[in-house]
């Protein structure tokens, strides 16, 4: 299982840590997605990442209709 962020931004705010920045997570530790932005598939990927405490965005995620997955 990939490393996860141990503390969320919401937890930090509730504890009064307004300058909290989560630790960077290497993009090699979780897969990118070719799902189109705004699609149900992409939203499901983002929800799954949030549940696992992973960053929402991956450097290789598809960013537009013209992006081709895997390139």
Explain this structure to me?
The chain is mainly α. Helices cover 27% and strands 0% of the residues. The protein has 2 helices and no strands. The protein has helices spanning 9-14, 40-52. The radius of gyration is 14 Å and the shape is elongated. The two termini are 25 Å apart. Residues 1-5 have low confidence and may be disordered.
User: Roughly how much helix do the residues carry, as a percent range?
Assistant: 25-40%
Task: Write down the oligomeric state.
Answer: single chain
What would the principal axes of the Cα set say about the shape? elongated
Give, in order, the helices and strands: HH
Task: Break the fold down into its secondary structure elements and pairings.
Blueprint: H1 9-14, H2 40-52
Short overview:
It contains two helices and no strands.
Task: Name some characteristics of this structure.
71 residues; mainly alpha; 2 helices; 27% helix; 0% strand; elongated; disordered N terminus
């Amino acid at each position: 299982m990939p490393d996860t962020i141990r503390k969320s931004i919401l937890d930090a705010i509730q504890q009064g840590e307004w300058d909290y920045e989560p630790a960077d997570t290497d993009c090699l530790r979780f897969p990118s997605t070719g799902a189109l932005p705004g699609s149900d598939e992409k939203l499901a990927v983002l929800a799954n990442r949030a549940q696992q405490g992973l960053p929402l965005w991956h450097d290789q995620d598809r960013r537009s209709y013209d992006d081709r997955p895997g390139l």
